[in-house]
Amino acid sequence: MAACIDTPRPDTSHNPNRSSHPNDQAHKLMNFCRPSFSDHVSCIPFNRNFTNKALDVLHREEDTEDLWNKMLEEARSDVEREPILSNYYHSSILCHKSLESALATHLSIKLSNSSLPINTLVDIFMEVLEGDSEIMRAVEGDLRAAKERDPACISYVHCFLNFKGFLAIQAHRIAHKLWSQQRKVLALLIENRVSEVFSVDIHPGATIGSGILLDHATGVVIGETAVVGNDVSILHNVTLGGTGKVAGDRHPKIGNGVLIGAGTCILGNIRIGDGAKVGAGSVVLKEVPARTTAVGNPARLLGGKENPIKLDRIPSHTMDHTSHIAEWSDYVI
């Protein structure tokens, strides 16, 4: 294993004596929208032609920094606080030269068993991760998604080591690459191990974008022909499935910036438009237009089909599960 040569740096990110900019209106607006978060993505209003370009602009500054170096600093800081975890952090993070190496090893340890040794998985995973820069960009986007949207995520390292939704998505990215290379038996084996270990079942044929948050993740099922766009947030026990009566292209297509609440079933080859929100426990059988909210079983649009209420914020980033829904429902206590 590679030797660790970097030394810990003091964490000054939360220094109470650090002075702030006197005219930081953007910071005040950010705190108004998400008071506990360091990001400002959730405050972006929709424009008429919402695309991910706006999100790319916001992440451009952080993209110029080395996320891996941040993770190394976080790991050293954690070890200073909890020396008992030094061996774990060393083998998982600090002994590695790259994010690719750390991810391949960490996933291999999680997914290995007596007949599927760690070294075999490391070789497979490293081959894919080192050979596809798009996957690694998506990995970084997923790390940022968890850090920005989930108040329970205290650091990038915390997400990397402990968030099974993040790990399940990365294992899927590897399996999807193998599936596209016609290595389908191997891809399906990885899917099976991910399902057994993380309780997340994503068919390797499914296409998933970047900036994905699987929050809690337990019970998420995504079918073979499903497509999930960029910057999507999905809660636990969500099914993107078929209706059970058709073959071929039979699974949902989820647009960019969509928020899907816990326990939701979206069934059939239907589209959930960009920036839409689906309330928890809904059963969606028809298309949901962009920037609208669908809720119920069967789901219906808030405001009605003819004039639905239009969202003015990106729901996958605000993570607001209740706006408009509480007003609509007459049985809320």
Oligomer: single chain
Q: How far is it from the N-terminal to the C-terminal residue, by CA?
A: 57 Å
User: For the report, how would you describe the main beta sheet?
Assistant: 6 strands, mixed
> Could you tell me the number of beta strands?
15
Structural class per helix/strand content?
A: alpha/beta
Low-confidence stretches are 1-43, 57-61
Give, in spatial order, the strands making up the sheet with the most strands: 3-6-9-12-14-15
Proportion of residues in β-strands? 5-15%
Q: Count helical runs.
A: 12
The proportion of residues forming helix, as a percent range, comes to: 40-55%
What does the overall shape look like? globular
Radius of gyration: 21 Å
Topology order in helix (H) and strand (E) letters = HHHHHHHHHHEEEEEEEEEEEEEEEHH
Mean pLDDT: 84
Walk me through the structure.
The structure is a single chain. The model is unreliable at 1-43 and 57-61 (pLDDT under 50). The chain has 333 residues and is an alpha/beta fold. Helix content is 41%, strand content 11%. A 6-stranded mixed β-sheet has the order 3-6-9-12-14-15. The relative contact order is 0.10. The protein has helices at residues 25-33, 53-63, 67-81, 86-94, 99-111, 118-131, 133-149, 156-162, 164-180, 184-198, 315-318, 325-328, and strands spanning 201-202, 207-208, 213-214, 221-222, 227-228, 233-234, 239-241, 253-254, 259-260, 265-267, 271-272, 277-278, 283-284, 293-296, 299-301. The protein has 12 helices and 15 strands. Helix 7 packs antiparallel against helix 9 (164-180) and helix 9 (164-180) runs antiparallel to helix 10 (184-198).
